[in-house]
Specification:
- This protein has a domain of 66 residues.
- It is built from 4 helices and no strands.
- The model has no long low-confidence stretch (mean pLDDT 81).
Length: 129
Amino acid sequence: MNFENILQAAKDKVKEITPNDVLKVVGLQLLRNPGVLMRLPFFALFGGGVALGAGAALLFAPKTGAETREAIGTWVKGAITSAKDIGKKAKAKAEDVAEDAGQAIEEGANGIKRKVAHKAKSIARESEA
């Protein structure tokens, strides 16, 4: 084997090396699903925009800090009350549905019992005859 052949073989081997091969040497690997990392700049910009908007709103608010805090507190209390009311309505509706389902299951079971009893009687009559 001459030097040119050795050089060509080395070039061919280097072409086969992938980024993962290099990362494996140092104990790392490529990300398989970088979904969240790809969206991180968007979330950072969105969060920054929200913070800037909130700051600007507070700076240019026509009310004093105490009035603003009171208004926010009133809004939060109203939201909590609404959420509790919705929860109570949902619970009542779920209880109604559960009761209706229980009645339907009971009616179905009674119907099956009647059919089985009827079939048992007819089989008993046929066996007597």
